[in-house]
Here is the input.
Amino acid sequence: MEVIVIRFSFHNPTKIHFGQAMIKMIGKELREAGQHKVLLICGSGSIRANGVYDQVCNSLRDNGITWIEAWGVKANPDLEKTREIINIAKSEAVDSVLAVGGGSVIDTAKAVCAGFYLSDVWDAFCRRAEILRALPLYTVLTISATGSEMNGNAVITNEKERKKWAISSLLLYPKVSVVDPDIQVSLPPQQTVNGALDAIAHILEYYFMDSELHSTRAIDTALIKSIIESTDFLIRNPQDMAARANLAWCATLALNGISGAGMQGGDWACHQIEHALSAYNPKISHGEGLGVIFPAWIEFMAERDPIRFYQWAKQVWNEDTPSMGVKRFREKIKAWGSATSLRELGFQEADLPELCNILSINPMIGTLSRFGTSEIEAILMLAY
Ligand code: NZQ
Ligand code: ZN
Here is the structure.
C-alpha cells in the first residue's frame, strides 16, 4: 500500500488591519511597539493624489511618531534606489520602516530593513550574506497583487546586471499591514488587472504540485474563482467596493502561506521566466508578464503530462480538457485588456535568445520539471 506523507510548517507573524478607514491604526501600532523615528518609504506620488499620504501623516502625528521620508521608488524597483534609501536609513538612525505603496515600495522597504545591517544589500540577493537582523517593517498597502504585505519576500532588480532576484526571510514579514481596499479605487484598470493576474499566478505556482492535501487545492480553486469574479465586476464598475475587498483579501491569501500549505514549495518556473522579462525591460508589469507566460507554460506542460491539468480545467473553467482551459484563460486575460503574447509586450523574436541568456544564470528553473534552454525556448515560442 502506498504511504502518503503530508507534512508542512506554517508560520505567519504579520498582523493585518483590513477594511475602510483602517489606515488610522498604523500610528497607534507604531506607538504601542515603542517606535520613535520611522522611515516612510513611498512610490512616485499616487498616494499624494488619492489622500493616502495625508491619512498616514495624520495617524503618525496623532500618535507622536517622528518620521523622515524617502520618495521615488518605481515599479519593478531597482537596486540603486534601494541602496540610496539604505544610506538614508543608516545616516538618520531610524528605528523602523513604514512602506506606503504596492509590492515595489514594500519590497524596497524589506531590502532596506535587511540592508540596514549589511555592508551591501545585494550580497543577500546573491546569497553571499545571510539576513540575521532586520529593522521592523510596517506597511500600508495600496494595490493588491504581490502578497508582500503578508510575506517575507522582496524582489529587486539589479538593472546594470539585468538580474531581477529575490530574498526571503522570516525577519522580513511586516509586523503590521493595513489593507484598505477602498483606497484602490484610484488604480488605473490595467493595474487592477495586473494585481489579479499576479495573485492568480501565485496560486497556480502551487496548484499543480503532487499533493494529497485536497483541502489546500479546494481553497486555491475558490481563491482563483473569486479573483476572476471580482476582477470581472471591477472591469464593469471600478467603484464596486465588495469586489475590491474580495480581490484584496484573495491576493493576500494567494502568497501568505495559505495557498501553498502542503504544496511542496510550489513550482515557480513562470515567476522566474517573468522576472527575466522585467529584467530585460523594467517597463513590463509583473502581472501582465505572468499573463503571457502562465498559459504558455500550462500549454507546454500539459502536452507532456495532461493528467495533471484536467482538474484545473474542470474546476476553474468548467472545461473537459487542459487545452480548452488554456483557451479560456487566455480569453479572460484578453477580455481584461491585458497582453496574451510576448509580441504585445513589445518583444521581437530576435530578443528571445537574450531572455534565455538572462535565465541561463539560474541553476534550476521549475520544480515539476527542471527546464534547460530548449524547454525555455519552447515556452517562449508558445508565448510569442
Ligand atoms: O509609484 P506609485 O505612486 O506607488 O504608483 C504605483 C505604480 O505605478 C501604482 N499604484 C499603486 N497603488 C495605487 C497606484 N496608483 C493609483 N492608486 C493606487 N492606490 O501602481 C503601479 C504599480 O505598483 P507596484 O507596487 O509596482 O505594483 P505591484 O504591487 O504589482 O508590485 C510589483 C513588484 O512586486 C514584485 C514584482 O516582481 C514587482 O517588482 N513581486 C513581489 C513579490 C513579493 N514580495 O512577494 C512576489 C511577486 O511575485 C512579485 O515578484
Ligand atoms: Zn508574482
